[in-house]
Amino acid sequence: ADYTAALATGEALVFEPEPEDDEEEERKARARRAANLDEGEPEHNPDREHERQIAEQTKEHEPRP
After folding, report:
1. How confident is the model at residue 44 (pLDDT cuts 50, 70, 90)?
2. What is the Rg, in whole angstroms, of the alpha carbon atoms belonging to the chain?
3. How far is it, in rounded angstroms, from Cα 41 to Cα 62?
4. CA distance 2 to 33
């Protein structure tokens, strides 16, 4: 595609990723997730993360003896 001509006419340029790239990235992401599960690392859990943050904040605000 001639992007210079598109720029000269004021057309919007839209760059879309190649489908193969998306599929390859998704395959790699699945492999990474599988590897993490094999290593025993817990999957990210937003509810538990929120509970942990609340616990930390509670500790910060407790009066010290």
Report:
1. low
2. 24
3. 31
4. 40
**Domain positions in the chain:** 17-61
Query: Is the CB of residue 13 less than 8 Å from the CB of residue 3?
Result: yes
Count the residues in the chain: 65
For the cut 70, the answer to whether the pLDDT of residue 40 exceeds it is: no
Exposure b/e, 9-25, CB count within 10 A at least 16 = b: eeeeeeeeeeeeeeeee
Does the structure show a pLDDT above 70 at 1?
no
Asked if residue 55 lies in contact with residue 62, where contact means CB atoms within 8 angstroms, the answer is no
What pLDDT does 8 receive?
79
What span, in angstroms and rounded, lies between the C-alpha atoms of 12 and 15?
Answer: 10
